[in-house]
Amino acid sequence: MNGHTRQLPALAANCTISVIIPIYNEIELLPIVLEHLRVLPLNLELILVDDGSNDGTEQFLETQKHLPNCQVVRHSQNRGKGSAIVSGLKVATGDIIIIQDADMEYTPSDIVSVIEPIIDGKTNVCFGSRFLGKIDGMRLPNRIANYFLAFFVSALFGQRITDEATAYKAFRREIIKEIPLTCKGFEFCPEVTAKVLLTGEKILEIPVNYSARTFEEGKKIGYRDFFVAIKTMLKCRFLKNG
Question: Of 95, 116, 184, 193, whose Cβ has the fewest other Cβ atoms within 10 Å?
Answer without folding.
Answer: 184
